[in-house]
Amino acid sequence: MAATYEEIISDLKKRIFKPVYFLAGEEPYYIDLITDYIEGNVLQEEEKSFNQVIFYGEDTNITSVIETARGFPMMSSHKVVIVKEAQSLKKIEDLIIYVDKPLPSTILVINYKYKAIDKRTKFYKALESHAVYFDSARLRDYQVPAWIERYLMTQGIKIDPSASALLTEYLGTDLHKIVNELSKLIITLPAGRPLITVSLIEKNIGISKDFNNFELQKAVGEKNILRANMIVHHFANSPKDNPITLSIASLFSFFSKLLTYYYLTDKSKNNAAAALKINPFFVKDYEVAAAKYNVSKTVQIINLLRTYDMKSKGYGDTSSEPGDLLKELVFKTLHI
Questions:
Q1: 333 conformational bin, left if phi > 0, alpha if psi -120 to 50, beta if neither
Q2: What is the pLDDT of residues 220-252, one digit of tens each?
Q3: Where does CATH 1.20.272.10 sit in the chain?
Q4: Domain spanning 141-205 has what CATH number?
Q5: Reported pTM
Q6: What is the dotted CATH code of the domain comprising 5-135?
Q7: What's the CA gap between 54 and 42, in Å, rounded?
Q8: What is the C-alpha separation between 127 and 129, in angstroms, rounded?
Q9: What is the per-residue pLDDT across 125-155, written as a single tens digit (0 to 9) for each?
Q10: What CATH architecture applies to the domain 213-334?
Q11: Rounded CA gap, 172 and 28, in Å?
């Protein structure tokens, strides 16, 4: 049975347990949350010594897991068997023998990160019929700012749209890393001011609010030549902290969305935000850029970005430094 994170946690809190939980997918954050909840909350502390067993995929095998899962609990209603890093477990599909006939008193948790089971296989069909199957998909870049806002909202904290965009640009889609950095920020919040700002991020995480890809994207969109050049020169002086591939990807995303924006019949803030998959706060950036770059120029810039993406990876230009390539790219973009 496929289930969502919310459904699984809701049942666990009600102490509605299933014999097998197979937690898979590219995003490990929710997989670990469910695993940790079961590990910490199903059994009382005094029950865990005899009734809770934790394996690691690299250090065990399917036979050991099945034999342990088939054992009855001692002085407890349940036995908990957890396999962490199960993606390293060889012949995982052989678990089908147990999944088809699980022991009701055992709660078997398979923590299978970074990939999913092929849904065409007999093993997946067995999981679908006799287990709880959770597929944790990795968020897309454009989904992360909204996720950050929702996460903080559950704790009574707000975040400026620019701040959530900056965190996304700096941290990517790794939810473990994002939550870790948010925890640091929450601790530093002034009493009575539950708001995370760009300045707070700069002060406590070390991300520059002035020199980052988000600001470069904005400067180029505004055709602010002085500002764009200042950012590019800063990047060139610290290339390890500002990889050219990320700068090109950021600009490519922006101009691709700008091209979409041109062809919207309804350019109202909310409709444009939905179409571009952005926070409505940032629609004005595309309005400004649309006045600076027409459709023809936008297409030329997208092609230019593709060319420099190849150059940055060593195709057609193996001698130029990444900083010089970025300076050249931004100059051509601003003067196209």
A1: alpha
A2: 999 999 999 999 998 998 888 889 999 999 999
A3: 213-334
A4: 1.10.8.60
A5: 0.77
A6: 3.40.50.300
A7: 14
A8: 5
A9: 999 999 999 999 999 888 999 999 999 999 9
A10: Up-down Bundle (1.20)
A11: 14
